[in-house]
Design a protein that fits this description.
The protein has 106 residues and is mostly helical. It is built from 4 helices and no strands. The longest helix is centred in the middle third of the chain and has 24 residues.
């Protein structure tokens, strides 16, 4: 169950940075409130997962999912750069996340 908590926390780690962009500096309440909720729930689920998972692994996977997902959605939603070097770096983050999951002891 802790891996599921961590995965959902990671997805929410993607949602709130995207929400920051849409909230326009917390001036659009329709985006600000769900962004704040996603942030709080992401932290809560990370704390639940870290009860049994190694904290270094949990935190690295949580941030890795966030970085990977936010970079991908930045490209898709906001037209951010997607040159070959950037895509390769994003892919390396993904490989790191998978590697951490495969080598985790809990």
């Amino acid at each position: 169950m802790d891996w599921l908590y961590l995965f959902v926390a990671g997805l929410l780690e993607v949602a709130w940075p995207i929400g920051f962009k849409y909230s326009k500096g917390f001036t659009k309440w329709a985006y600000t409130i769900p962004t704040a909720a996603a942030l709080c729930l992401s932290f809560f689920l990370l704390s639940k997962a870290s009860k049994t998972l190694p904290i270094g692994t949990a935190y690295a996977i949580w941030t890795g999912i966030g970085v990977f997902g936010t970079a991908v959605f930045g490209i898709i939603l906001f037209g951010e750069s997607y040159n070959l070097l950037r895509l390769m770096c994003i892919f390396l983050i993904f490989v790191g996340i998978v590697g951490l999951k495969l080598t985790a002891s809990a």
